[in-house]
Amino acid sequence: MLNTIEKFDSSVMQTYGRFPLVMDNGRGVEATDENGKKYIDLGSGIGTNSLGYCDEKWADAVCAQVRAVQHTSNYYYTKIQADFADMLCKTAGFSRVFFGNSGAEANECAIKLARKYSFDKYGKGRHTIITLVNSFHGRTIATLSATGQDVFHNYFFPFLEGFVHVTANDIDDLKAKLDDTVCAVMIEYVQGEGGVNALDQDFVDAVFDMCAEKDVLVIADEVQTGIGRTGKFLAGEWFDHKADIVTLAKGLAGGVPIGACLASEKYADVLTKGTHGSTFGGNPIACAGGKAVLERVVSEGFLDNVLAKSEYIKKELEKIDEVESISGLGLMIGITLKTKNAAEVVKEALDRGLLLLTAKDKVRLLPPLTIEMDDLRNGLRILKQILEE
Length: 389
Ligand SMILES: *Cc1c(COP(=O)(O)O)cnc(C)c1O
What we know:
By secondary structure, the protein is of the alpha/beta class. The protein contains 12 helices and 17 strands. It has 2 domains: 4-55 and 302-388, Aspartate Aminotransferase, domain 1 (Alpha-Beta Complex); 69-297, 3-Layer(aba) Sandwich (Aspartate Aminotransferase, domain 2), CATH 3.40.640.10. It has a 7-stranded mixed beta sheet, with helices on both faces.
């Protein structure tokens, strides 16, 4: 008989390099594999299990929704989508939201919205979207085209036209490329997959100034940085800017598939009946998960707690000789090592019961926002041991 991994590999397309770990269950920060081995998970499913594994209130809300109504087409209304959308828009300070099922879909919506706004007002030819070198915006053809990394621009030709890449933090490059064909500039305030690199304040200021001047939309891809990940509700708050469009996904519903594209008042009515849709978008289960996450993230002291834990992690990491530098904001942390290879550190950590991520050549931490100090201490102790050997 085939074991799980053999069965999996013989039937699931091999698009991921996977670790030989079969996850069975989890509670809080702790994951348990099928052999009963326990792991402290500082990756939280790439920042998706924002409240950890199977948070009690979140699970109750999701299960109650499953037993009430699990899906209805978007030809009808649900109270849970209304409540969640209302709460999300008010908390984030936006007017309208469109729900999809992933980060890529949220970005697709943003791209369509920007192009339609420009088409409605200026006609054809003003369709270019500027994104940044080293960005990551998703795996669909449009979001791959948007992604500013050559490694993603292979095999699937032809890619979509109308995407131009500017070097992050290079204001002159931005100036040179922000011509009259541009309808939007899309940024990650902290590039996640690109290596946990925060943008410079000056550059972000320049993006917003130049875009405002030319009636060009600023799209903030907060798929990874949003919903408390950086210690602010949205990472844009660190830079004192509010984008025209914000996209969210990963941590938004605590591990249920969801994507959201938020539009400010000026762009609230750009996407009209029949111009966009998604069968599963705004699914009641996803909305119930999202509402449970939101309620927690906006609760008294929650974000302060995220920041306190971030400071603790940085302080502990700084004590480790092997650590060259630390990047990122809040509980989105990149660690550059002096001599060790990040992928090998992650592999070694797995053996010792610690789950970590990489981002380019860095070790990346995206712990659940609710991680307890004791668990954090234990996780960092294992990491320290590995780095000091
Ligand atoms: C993960 C990610 C995406 C893609 O999200 P999917 O849910 O995998 O489609 C897009 N943008 C950023 C910044 C991300 O981190």
